[in-house]
Design goal:
Blueprint: E1 7-11, H1 13-23, H2 25-41, E2 52-55, E3 60-67, E4 71-79, E5 93-99, E6 105-110, H3 112-130, E7 137-141, H4 147-158, E8 162-166, H5 170-180, E9 186-189, H6 193-197, E10 202-205, E11 212-216, E12 226-229, E13 238-240, H7 242-247, E14 249-252, H8 255-261, E15 274-275, H9 276-280, E16 294-297, H10 302-319, E17 323-326, H11 337-354
Parallel strand pairs: 1-6, 7-8, 7-10, 8-9, 10-12, 11-13, 12-16, 14-15, 14-16
Antiparallel strand pairs: 1-17, 2-3, 3-4, 4-5, 5-6
Helix pairs in contact: 1-2, 2-3, 2-4, 2-10, 3-4
Length: 355
């Protein structure tokens, strides 16, 4: 990458798509999960705070910052379920990685596609520690923009090869099945959530509506399953019946954020949960027996985006899939910013005088 301090590598949507395809989607997900795992294993090195959210009746806009003391990263992301009715994405995002020592940004990148990839990678990484051993079948309830990424991440990391799809909008399930055709899955499109969970060892819920919803009722969840609850990710937005939570061992990313935004907002503030990093570092148990119901109450956390930013930056030198963005002022004398403006004025004036 460029060494010019005033130029910042920028990864556009087009470059991100080319990067993912150059690496290969499943390899990208697997390697990204490795970066996320590395950062969970050094969890205590990070600054941690619940994301800063601005809520409205239309949706939410959030900032997700963190730092490991050497690099600082943040993501801007929105969640507007109504957008699909207007031909817009429910979630859009961009992110920045910066050097803590100088404060200079090191990377600016789209994160709409990257967030979908990191969400799938995080879900599958958690399931590596929590899902039943030898699981092959996953139900995906909610077949929108995230569903294919979830499926491919679970295939890449866990070997899931049987999918049972359900969405209130049948065209979404058909879209998902078509997109995943030829990628090594045995796919069944189901007519109800009850049908989708039949025989599934892993249940992924990933719906978009910003409301308290009951995507899974208690009678749909048998012993021994792993639930990957992705869709409930802001106050007032859940997918699981409360009784399911009371029967499950619950695993979360960062409790202060999940208690506000996740499924556990339905429970008392002191309801016991286990942090995922504790399982990964052997400080707490994950799956303990074949009958246990495990629930990953996933809301997404800033360290995962930090990991994704690190991963993308590490791919740029070999691929060259970025643009050079003239983002930072670079005066000849650091204290003479106004002089830089005057010299620019003179540079503009010279061609005019020549004419």
């Amino acid at each position: 990458m460029t060494a010019k301090l005033n130029v910042v590598p920028f990864v556009s949507v087009d470059s991100m798509m080319k990067l993912v395809l150059t690496v290969g989607v499943e390899k990208f997900l697997t390697e990204l999960a490795g970066y996320i795992e590395e950062d969970f294993l050094r969890w205590e090195s990070f600054d941690k705070t619940p994301r800063i959210a601005s809520h409205s009746s239309e949706g939410v806009i959030e900032l997700m910052p963190t730092s490991d003391g050497k690099m600082y990263g943040f993501k801007y992301v929105n969640g507007h379920p109504k957008n699909t009715r207007e031909g817009l994405q429910t979630v859009t995002a961009f992110g920045v990685l910066a050097d803590v020592g100088s404060g200079y940004p090191m990377l600016l990148t789209e994160m709409t596609i990257l967030t979908a990839l990191r969400t799938g990678a995080t879900s599958a990484l958690a399931a590596k520690y929590l899902a039943p051993e030898g699981a092959r079948t996953m139900a995906i309830i909610g077949n929108g923009a995230q569903s294919e990424f979830q499926a491919l991440a679970f295939k890449s990391l866990l070997g899931i090869d049987k999918l049972r799809l359900y969405d209130l909008d049948g065209s979404a399930s058909r879209k998902c099945a078509k997109n995943l055709a030829g990628m090594g899955f045995d796919i069944t499109i189901c007519s109800s959530g009850h049908e989708a969970v039949e025989g599934a060892e892993i249940i992924t819920t990933v719906t978009a509506d910003k409301q308290y919803a009951t995507i899974l009722t208690d009678n749909m969840v048998g012993s021994g399953v792993h639930i990957n609850a992705v869709g409930g990710d802001c106050p007032g937005k859940t997918e699981l019946h409360r009784d399911i939570l009371l029967r499950s061992d619950i695993f979360v990313e960062y409790p202060p954020q999940t208690r506000i935004e996740g499924e556990i907002q339905q429970l008392a503030a002191d309801h016991p949960v286990t942090e995922l990093w504790q399982v990964m570092t052997d400080k707490a148990a994950g799956r303990k027996d074949a009958k246990q119901i495990t629930l990953f109450d996933s809301v997404g956390f800033a360290t995962e985006d930090f990991s994704a930013l690190r991963y993308v930056r590490d791919q740029l030198r070999a691929t060259g899939l970025y643009e050079e963005l003239d983002l930072l002022a670079d005066p000849d004398e650091p204290r003479d910013l106004f002089g830089m403006l005057l010299r620019a004025e003179q540079a503009v004036a010279k061609p005019q005088m020549a004419t």
